[in-house]
Amino acid sequence: MLENIRFLAAYRHPGVVPADQVDRAWQEVVDGEEMALAERRLAGDRKPEEARPALMALLWDERLTTDLAAQPLSGECVLRRRA
């Protein structure tokens, strides 16, 4: 869990990920989908990993959640939306 939090901490500063990318990811992420699916869908015709920073920023801000204690962050992590 600590490694996951340390990794996500890189996304804690405003401006690390452009706000428009974070806002778009927040609007489009589907509650209960796996991270890999969200990345592919958000990336469109770009590489899926290009959508990852926005999801990481949302996880750091706790607008999205996943079980950080159960496993290392991966494409299999299930994303949950928080109000």
Description of the structure:
- By secondary structure, the protein is mainly alpha-helical.
- It has one domain (2-81): Arc Repressor Mutant, subunit A (Orthogonal Bundle).
- The protein has four helices and two strands, in the order ααααββ.
- It has helices at residues 2-9, 19-28, 35-43, 52-60; strands spanning 64-65, 80-81.
- A two-stranded antiparallel ribbon has the order 1-2.
- The termini are far apart.
- 22% of the residues are buried.
- The model has no long low-confidence stretch (mean pLDDT 95).
Reported for the largest beta sheet, the result is: 2 strands, antiparallel
Return Rg in Å: 12 Å
The CATH architecture comes to Orthogonal Bundle
Strand order of the largest sheet: 1-2
CATH topology: Arc Repressor Mutant, subunit A
Give the low-pLDDT segments.
none
Straight-line distance between termini: 23 Å
| Helix amount | 40-55%
Output the number of helix runs. 4
Give a count of the beta strands, DSSP E runs of length 2 or more. 2
Secondary structure topology:
Layout: H1 2-9, H2 19-28, H3 35-43, H4 52-60, E1 64-65, E2 80-81
Antiparallel strand pairs: 1-2
Helix pairs in contact: 2-4
Give a concise summary.
It is built from 4 helices and 2 strands. With 83 residues, it is mainly alpha-helical.
